[in-house]
Automatic annotation (TrEMBL):
Record's protein name: IraD/Gp25-like domain-containing protein
InterPro entries: IraD/Gp25-like (IPR007048)
Highest taxon above the source species: Bacteria
Domain IraD/Gp25-like intervals: 2-77
Length: 102
């Protein structure tokens, strides 16, 4: 959701249009555009899940927008996994740092 279309090298269509809609007035049309943008991004670029629904609700008094995704994980550790972020301390071959003086 954080990648804009055109940011990925050699994948100009990859991404989601949410950034384009940030400053649009909150109308029913904008909510529908947000739902379509998220649905399209997940449908085309996230093979690990099946999207059941996208719900957009705004609270104009608080200036917030809530987006609820309901989905089902297809399987785990498929070869299409894209994992972010990467942690330095994760892994199977990580050992403790050497003690000073050893």
């Amino acid at each position: 959701m954080g990648t804009r279309p055109g940011e990925r090298v050699m994948q100009p269509d990859y991404g989601c249009r949410l950034h384009d809609l940030v400053f649009d007035p909150m109308t029913a049309e904008t909510e529908a555009e947000i739902e379509v943008a998220i649905t399209r991004a997940i449908l085309f670029f996230e093979p690990r899940i099946v999207l059941n629904s996208v719900q957009v609700a705004d609270d104009w008094r608080a200036g917030t927008l809530r987006i609820r995704l309901e989905f089902r994980v297809r399987s785990t550790n498929a070869r299409h996994n894209r994992v972010f972020p990467f942690y330095r301390t994760e892994g199977t071959l990580i050992s403790a740092p050497p003690e000073p003086g050893t």
